[in-house]
Design brief:
Strand 8 and strand 9 form a beta hairpin. 45% of the residues are buried. The protein starts with a strand and ends with a helix. With 322 residues, it is α+β, with helices and mostly antiparallel strands. Strands 8, 9, 10, 11, 12 and 13 form a 6-stranded antiparallel sheet that branches. The protein has 3 domains: 91 residues, Rossmann fold (3-Layer(aba) Sandwich), CATH 3.40.50; 138 residues, D-amino Acid Aminotransferase, Chain A, domain 1, CATH 3.30.470; 61 residues, Dna Ligase, domain 1 (2-Layer Sandwich), CATH 3.30.1490. The protein is built from 9 helices and 13 strands. 34% of the residues lie in helices and 23% in strands.
Length: 322
Amino acid sequence: MKVTVLYNLPGTSSTTEIAEADNDTQISAIGIFEELKKLGYQAEILGISQNEIKKLKNLKTDLVFNLIEWSGRESKDGTKVLEILEKANIKYTGSPAWGYRLSCNKILMKKRLDEEKISTPKWQIFKTGKEKITLPYPIIVKPSSEHCAIGVSQTSVCDDEKSVRVKILELIHLYKQPVLGEEFIEGLEAHVTVLQKNGKAWVLPPAVIKFLNHQGFHHILTYESKWQNDNWESKFTKWDELKLSDNILQKIEKLAKKTNDKLGGRSYARIDMRIRDDEVFVLEINNNPGIDFDPDSGIAYSAKKAGLTWDSLLKNIVEEAL
């Protein structure tokens, strides 16, 4: 069986942050390609630019392992890729086009979470920075259409109106898109991977992040802490081996399944949650998360907890997509 590992080449408006994320995607694509070959698949790897998208309608393969992840205003091109594959009746891993589009746009995502009555922090959209602020403090501020924590830093958590407005204007200027403000939920963060087993959602054990206390350090995953291993912040986040209560675990599983179902998760998805006392909140769903077996990866941590190896994880994704 022929499997094409498809990934995106850097976009036309890539910043340094986006370029680093795109480089990581290419590294993941190579790792998946090599492992699929070891598993006996007829594997090929294909990196495409945005002006090559239409050529995919002529692609000859049994399955596309989709790693396309253009960011920000260019995320619409990732949706185009999936729409072309669907029209050409080419099977692919991951979310359908509508779910991919939704998870690339935090405004659409938050609206859908509210419509489905899925617990999520209070939120507000800012297009100019002059809007009346209706959220309780502290507030976390982030770009509405970026991924990989792009645009998220320690200054994203704001305790007063002045700092919120300064941050909103900064992000609008840098990323040329609306800004999402959210009630900041202090507590544990959990990354919940949802695979499929026999066509049904399979929620893996959550990868829980413990934030260590440090003066001036907000308990969040910033771009620097995720991508710059030598950054001081990375020393204060780690996977936590603590045992969550059965009540919290049940809430996580129920929320993960509902979010995955209602927001277009398929094949594999990662749902980021926050836990405050006995409350669980869905921050967002990533319907096309990075896939690797690096110890720092949430999907790798959860897969190992579920008894999966790198090859059995990839085999599950491929077989469930067929």
